[in-house]
Give the backbone structure.
Amino acid sequence: MLRERLTIGRRALLAGTAAATVLGHLRAAGARTPGQLIIGMNEEAVNFNPLLYVNTGVETSVEFIVFDAPWKLDPTGSFVPNLATEIPTQANGGISADGKTWTIKLRKDVLWHDGTPFTAADMIFTLDTLLNPKVVVRSRNGHEHVETYKAVDDYTVLIKLKDNFAPYLVSWQKTSVIPKHVLASVPDINTADFNTNPIGTGPFRFKERVAGSYISFTPNEKYHGGKPKLNLLVQKYIADQQTMYAQYQTGEIDIYDINGIPPVLFAKAKQIPQSKTLLSPSPFVEFIYFNCAKPQFQEKVVRQAIYKAVDKKGWIDAVWYGVPVPTLSYLPPNHWAYNKNLEDPGYDPKQAAAMLDAAGWTVGADGVRAKNGVRLAFTMSTTAGNKPREQAQQLVQQNLKKINIEMTIKNMPGSVVWGDYTIKGEYDTLMVAWDPLLYPDPDYTDRIHSKLIPAKGGSGSNYVQYENPEIDDLCAKGVAAVDQAERKKIYDRIQEILLEDVPFAPIFSWQAIMAAHDWVSGYTVNPYTSTNSWNTGDWSVT
Amino acid sequence: MRRYVAARLGQAAVLLLGVSVIGFALMHLAPGGPLALYTLNPTVTAQDIERVKHLFGLDQPVYVQYVKWVYGFLSGHWGYSFFGGRSVAPIVLERIPATLELMGSSLLLALAMGVAIGIWAAVRRNTLVDYGTATVAMLALSLPTFWFGLLAIYVFAQVLGWLPAGGIETTGNGSLIDRLTHLLLPMLVLALVLTAQWSRYTRSAMIDILTQDYIRTARAKGLGPVRVLVGHGLRAALVPLVTLAGLQLPLLVGGALVTETVFSWPGMGLLFISALDNRDYPVLMAILMVGALFVVLGNLAADIAVALIDPRIRLSHV
Amino acid sequence: MSDAVAPGKIAADIVAPPRAYRPGVVRRFVRHRLAVLGVVLIALLGIASVAAPYLAPYDPDEIDIGARYAPPLAENHLLGSDDLGRDVTTRLMYAGRISLSVGVAAMLVTLVVGFAIGAFAAYLGGWVDTVLMRLTDVMLCFPSVFLLLFVAAFVAPSLTSMALMIGLTCWMEIARIVHAQILTLKQADFIAAAEMAGAPAWRIVLRQILPNSLAPILVAATLNTANAILLESYISFLGYGIQPPQASWGNMLTNAQSDFQVDPWLAVFPGLAITLAVASFNFIGDGLRDALDPRLRRR
């Protein structure tokens, strides 16, 4: 569900509607293999090493099917023990009073797929690998806060952090454990056979991958969470959304998963017989990203005016058929830390124009506003070929033209836009969706702290180059606070300031349209994980 | 003959070196890079990106990277995919059978149909048949292949429901018939352009030959028209046609790329597109080299075949 | 160098080359009915494109969400409207400006580059010849779509960059034609005469060789235009084409694909426009081949 896919929407093809119905009945009438479930995805998983893969969503799906982390998140946002016996808290002694010492107790009945028992040594090995400078792990998932770690006994791990870091709980939800006995002797983990032939502790064993086609999994009979109900689970890769839609209609695939049904087909999809559509909320928020270092965007009044002049509702309705949920913050509105008191600036081009006039941005002879020789003209970039985004850009372009702002669309291949162009701050504005680093933790330091601007030598993801000492201060307080009510107050204030300063303009929180046929049960959308494959052990077909 | 082959092999090696230099330079000197996918992953920080860049060797000068790549490529280590977590060679090689299946079947079909239509048009020179096939061939060469593919899918998969819309087989059903029904549409679409070209070239070659004296002699001897055409005409036309087969390879490879994309055919073309999107340099270079090798060797094979068929050419080329 | 004292000029005038013009060219061309049809179609498409601002019923970028996906022959929209409610007829006309320009501009690039490389190689000979013609071979090794995509992925798309890209990947055929022609002509008496009269190399190339290789080059150029229009659509299809809101036939087609379920008509018209334009140029090329040089005729 990595929204910012590099892959472009060009493979958009057509689908079989007429054919679909005929074949669909065939399939529904019993052509299905009992106990076999096929889940369709628009992207292909290629690397199955949970620490190395890059493509969040489709590869996370494989991770959840084959591997386990100490705990997982259920659809209500609660942490549920998985490899661990309990969630560490200060109350149960799992976290020390100063928040720096963590004790993780492990289950004793977990077996790797090859029969070897799982122990604390595997946890230690996973941390070793994550922190090994020679291994191309995509992210350290917050484990860079770790100072020392050791196995107290075979089933207890003790970790000391450098600082009090509340989001660390999420770090271990996002870190699946890899087998020491398989990988310790491998000379180079980066190219290990394990990466395409994984051995985990999860509900399913990896069976085979046919490149460009599918990956299949067989049940792990000895799974510690109970024997999975399916006999065979297949993750099928279909490059094109329209073809996938056709195959879903015919029942050739049982679940329409990543990246969801195109919104333009939502109404049609609801009418497919023996099927239900499911809105799958995601942590991703769609933004207009301002490069605050550019002369046009240094004054917050400009950013505020643009936010006000853009018809956010029109955008959601016209491009996305009303599916996504409007948001005023970097968090989705259903998040516990979302500030419900944020005041919606609304859509008001007249007032936006008045604000700009008052600030001295007056309309020049060329019909474009300017102030002190700086024209209010800029480019907006996103991945070329992303059709909904291109539609939205054209709407925004029209909105802004009305208040004499000139916006030019400058889309480029993903590998260009999201490289140095974004990181080094070469862009004017971006249309982009991102979520917090350790979601569902509301910490947003990485994207807003003034010391984390990569264009200025910082080591974070503050691509908007936003600098505000008050925010820096609040971010530090937010991660150090343990009590949720106390944290909520801090994050409420952060969201309030961000809405006032608008370094990025939040538009909506993503919802993908998934669909599952009636014969599937157990498939449940989970807003807190990047894939709905979080509970495949419970899936079944009838 | 041996000297000829050796000389041509030497030329081929130089060609491939040129291809690799141009490809490598284009890739590395242009904006953008493989790390964008990391940027987009919400859990990846700027620190992580710097670390990964160093591990991939992308922080070294381009010529150093190139020398390393050449050395690795020649010694059989094609590097490892930035995203696949394994060596490049198996990633590329596992896609070859699907591509060969599509290209091979299309080529055979195009050959059979193109030659037949070409002979027909040549024999019926300047009649309605000739003009008709010429016009249709020209139209076929003017169609955007992918558009034609889309329309074919629309008609045969969507409206009529006779054939699947894409893929190489129904998951869980790898039967021969299932695979054939999946192959049919992409094969026809890819074969269309090739057939058009083959028919034109065969026609010209046959007309050249049919006006030669020995054909007239054969006719005068009272040989039947089929024996004249096939026994004498086609055999003589073989030389230009085999050369053409070699020259058509780039077209075939390019066409296969587009066709694979339209029909989600899991071959090298599809791999190329995704590697291009991700800027997976080692995979891109490997595909480029395998593709160029295929074209160069194809041309070479065609030339050698021609030399074997017609000894005069061998002499004139050395 | 003034004309009065230029020895090359005098030499060139003394030794009159056999001109490219051959009697009956027009007559032979007109007899090729499909070529004539091609000329008519290109003229129509060209006029519709050039005069789009005066002829088109709408502003090409005017968004009207309320009127999106109107079918052909709908009220106010002859060929329907697209995903943002823009008039398809209007956009087709404006798109023609881009697509035809890319085609012609790319053809010019192939001409200039192909001629330069072919002429230098053949005329100078020696290692220059070897290097340039090997380069031509290298370029021919890449399947053009393959190579083009490769380049397109690394370059920001615009009319100029598209034309340059396509031009720079398709000049090889012209280079080979020019090369072969010059090698043949080099032995011709009138060139030797010009050389003896002291004409500089560039002058001989321009005055003697260009007119003499005109026929095959003209044919190749026409076919290259057709090819360039086709390639523009391929690049768009694979996602690296002209950017919105500007329309080209290729990106209109690409845009239509994801809406095939909703409005299949959107894919039909741009596809037809491409096919018509490409076929027309191909027919014209065929006609020219027949007309300009009967020896080149593929009988």
Notes: Chain C touches chain B through 39 residues (CB under 8 Å).
